[in-house]
Task: structure prediction
Amino acid sequence: MTSTLISNIGELVTNSDKKLGLINNAALVIENGKVVWIGPTSKAPGADSRIDAEGGCVTPGFVDSHTHLVFSGDRSKDYEARMSGASYATGGINTTVAATRAASDDELRSNLKQRLNLMRESGITTVEIKSGYGLDIETEARILKIAREFTTETTFLGAHVVPKEFAERRGEYIDLVKGKMLDACAPNSKWIDVFCDQGAFTVDEAREIINAGIAKGLKGRIHGNQLGDTGGAELAAELGLASVDHCTHISDSTIERLAAQKVVATLLPGAEFFTRSPYPNARRFLDAGVEIALATDCNPGSSYLTSMPIAISIAIREMNLNPMEALYAATRGGATALQREDLGHLSIGATANLVIWDAPSYLHIPYRMGVISNRVITN
Result:
């Protein structure tokens, strides 16, 4: 067994409570990938090796609980159109589907590595990766097999939209997703997800698909209430899903149901930013007792964002979060959305995924939008 002491930490964010569990002039010891000691630098025990934090802030690594990282192609023209006044719709997904189907495994893997490297540079140490840009058995299975090489948090999203070739055979596609496609994808999936919204899937369709995944041993989460108050969040409460993601248009009564069922509301500020859409008010969720997470929603069409600090900064400015709440949501909130008690904090026993920031306080992360030298440590 080897141990590492990180000492001379100006400010340590442990996330032992929602006020971040701050410790000044701190140190911590890592052994076998776990945090085994925290306390003041002056009382730090010996260890096999030592890292000097040089007075910098140390935070848990960010936990990005919602991404679509495996894709090919370019949708910068969609971005240009929206920035020129066009509204967001789901049709562009099929453009990415065509490019992803045509891409080789090596191309998809290379693209994924590049995006993950950018995410790590921003302090993200855990990512969830969805499929959803294949929408056929072969490509959905390929996406998830590649994603599983890099994370255990993989999500089958065959129900992203109905692909063009099934436009007139919607029922057949839903049967395919629940049947042969699910069979092919379940071995490399931990989660099942459905885009339950305008232009995608109805509540009844989403219920069928998610229940089929749960019957196969997958855990459920859902895209809901992005484009309208269309019932996805209510379904998340009904089924007791881990998380409902987007939550842009949602009633007070539904928020209360999320709180009662302990469903995490995962907010995706990049999606609103890139689509010029209204931002959800995070205060409504917090005031009702709903746990919130922040995630990048990295995807080619509506949120090509690989930086969690930028997501945090947008959420503070536009979603009525303060810096403390936003940092917690991007770390322990994301871990809760993935039902990972070992991540998102630096208490004793936690997985020692952390970031040493060349800054004296966590406040500098949103204050400088993450443009800070850092050292990322993962276990």
User: Anything to note?
Assistant: The longest strand covers residues 3-13.
